[in-house]
Amino acid sequence: MNAFFNGEIFKDSLWLLVKTLPTVFEVLVLGLICAWAWGLALSLIRLSRFRALRYLAGAYIDLFRGLPLLLLFIFIYYGLPHAGLKLNALSSGVLGIALCYGAYSAEIFRAGIQAIAKGQTEAARSLGMTHGQAMRYVILPQAVKLVVPPLTNELIAMIKDTSLMSVIAVPELLFRAKEKMGVVANSTPLTVAALIYIVFTIPLIRVAARMESKRRKRRPGGKPPAGITPEAGIADAQLYDADIAAQLPKGGYG
Amino acid sequence: MTSMIELIDVHKSFDSLEVLKGVNLTVVKKEVVVVIGPSGSGKSTMLRCINGLEPILKGKVIIEGEDLHGPHTDPNRIRQRIGMVFQSFNLFPHKDALHNVMMAPLKVQKKPKAEAEQIAREQLCQVGLAEKMHAYPDELSGGQQQRVAIARALAMKPDMMLFDEVTSALDPELVAEVLGVMQGLAESGMTMVVVTHEMGFAREVGTRLIFMDGGVIVEEGDPREMIPNPKEPRTQKFLSMVL
Ligand SMILES: Nc1ncnc2c1ncn2[C@@H]1O[C@H](COP(=O)(O)OP(=O)(O)O)[C@@H](O)[C@H]1O
Ligand SMILES: [Mg+2]
Asked: In Å, how far are A169, A174, A187, B149 from A16, measured between CA atoms?
C-alpha cells in the first residue's frame, strides 16, 4: 500500500502536479478552440456544394481519424524539424490536438447538422435565404444543441489525451508524475495524477450522462420538436444515436 | 404582364425515376389553382420546381417573366416573391412565433428590426394569432403552427403562394381554421397554387382545378364543372375515390 500511497510523497507531488495545471489548461483551451473551429469549418465544407473541396475534407477526416494521436505528436515535435519546421512542445501539442480532434469534431458537427430535419432547410430556402443564411440562422442554432453532449464526451477524451504529450516533453501531469516517480522510487505521484484527472473528468462524465438521459426522455417518446412530424422526429433521434454515438471516442485515441 | 408562373415542358428525375414528365402550366394573377392527384404523382415536386427548391432536368420555369434558371437570375431573390407552406409546418423550433415570422424580413430583406417586428405582428394578427406572438412552436396546436407558417410566408409580401397539402397533417377539427385563412387570402387577390385533398375548398375557392397523375397534368378545368363531370377516365376514378 505504501508503494502507491505514501503520505509524505503525496503532499509533495500534489503541489508539484497542481502546478502543471495551468500548462494543461492552456493546451486544452487552445486545442479545444482550434479543434472545434476547424471541425466546424470542415463539416461545412463537407456539406458544401463544391465537390472537390467536399472530397478533400472527407479525405482529411478519414486520414486523421485513422492516425494515432501519439504518432501525430511525435511527428510534429520530432519529425517536422527535419523538414525545417520547429515548433516548441506546447505548440506541437496544440497543433496535434487541433488536427486530430478537428477530424472527430467535424463528424460530430456533420451529424448534428444532418440531424436537423430537411424541412428546416427547405423552409429557410423558400423564404429566400441563401445556403449560408439558412445555416447561420436556422440550422446551426439547432445543431448546436444536438452536439453539446457528444462534444462534452469529446472533451473528456481530450483531457485524457493531454497525457500523451508527456512523450514530447510538455511539462504536464503525467510527465511530472513520471519524473517524480523516478526520484522517489514510489508510485504515489501516479496515484495523485490519477486523482487529478478524475477530479476533472468525472463531473463531465456525469454531465454528459445527464444530458443523454434528458435527451432520451424528451425526443423519441415525448412530444416531437415542432416542425418535425412524429416519424421524422424518431428518425432524427435514431440517426443521432447511430451517427453521433458512432463517432464518439470510446476512450483515448492514443 | 399577368402571367405569374409558367412551367414549360418541365422534366424532373430523381436518379433514374422520372417524376415530372413534361409539365406545362401557366398561372395568371389572382388565380387559385387547386392541384389534386394520387400520392406520388409529382404534385409536391412540381411545387418545389416552381420555386427552385428542386433543380430541373429539362424545360423552363418562368416567374413573373423571369427565367428561374437563367444565367443571370438569382433564385434566392425570386424565392422571396414566392411564399411556400408545407404539410409538416417546418416552423423554426428555436424561435417563438414572432421571431419565426420576422426572421426573413430581418435577415433576408434586411429590414430594420422595428419594421420587421411590426410586419410580423400584423401578419400574426391577420391569421388570428395576436395572443400567441411569444409562444414557441411546440406550445402551439397544429392548426396554430400552420397559421404561423402562413404568416411567416406572407411577411415577405410575396406575389404568389404555394401550399403543399397544408391541412393533411392536422386533426380534422383544426382543418377549418387553416382553410379559413387561405380562403381569406384568396379573396384578397393572392395568386395561389394549392395542392390539397379538400374538395370543398377546391369547389368554393379554386378558380381552376388540375388533376395530376404519373408526372403529367391529365386534366384541368373549372372546379365546379370538373368535379361533377370529369372527362378523363383517370380523373373519374380518382374523384370517385376521394369524394
Ligand atoms: N428527394 C427525393 N428523392 C427521390 N425520390 C423522390 C424525392 N422526392 C420525391 N420523390 C419521388 O418522386 C415521386 C413523386 O413525389 P411527390 O412529388 O412527393 O408526389 P406527391 O406530392 O404527388 O405525392 C414519388 O415517387 C417520390 O417517391
Ligand atoms: Mg406531396
From this structure: 16, 11, 15, 61
- Considering only the beta carbons, identify the residue of A119, A145, A223 that sits closest to B86: A119
Cell of B124: 400574426
Which candidate, A72, A158, A150, places its Cα nearest to that of A110?
A150
State the cell numbers at B34.
Answer: 387547386
Q: Calculate the alpha carbon distances from A68 to A74, A87, A102, B68, B112 in Å.
A: 10, 20, 14, 50, 51
Q: How far apart are CA B153 and CA B80, in angstroms?
A: 9
| Complex confidence, ipTM | 0.94
Least reliable range by pLDDT among A25-34, A83-92, A210-219, B175-184: A210-219
Q: Are strands B3-14 and B58-63 parallel, antiparallel or unpaired?
A: antiparallel
3-state helix, strand, coil in chain A (%, to 5): 80, 0, 20
Gap between the Cα atoms of A177 and A113, Å rounded: 41
* pLDDT tens-digit readout, A114-125: 999 889 999 999
| pTM for this predicted structure | 0.84
Query: How far does residue B48's CA lie from ligand 2's centre (Å)?
Result: 10
Q: Walk across the sheet containing B17-28 and list its strands.
A: B17-28, B3-14, B58-63, B66-67
Top residue of A118, A121, A127, A145 to mutate, by most chain B CBs within 10 Å, is A127
Strands B17-28 and B66-67, how do they pair?
unpaired
Distance from CA of B225 to the nearest CA of A (A): 33
In this structure, the residues whose C-beta lies within 6 A of any atom of ligand 1 are B 14, 17, 19, 37, 39-45
A33 closest CA partner among A88, A95, A90, A107: A95
Residues B102-124, buried b or exposed e (16+ Cβ, 10 A)? bbbbbbbbebeeeebbebbbebb
Residues 6+ apart with CB under 8 A from A59: none
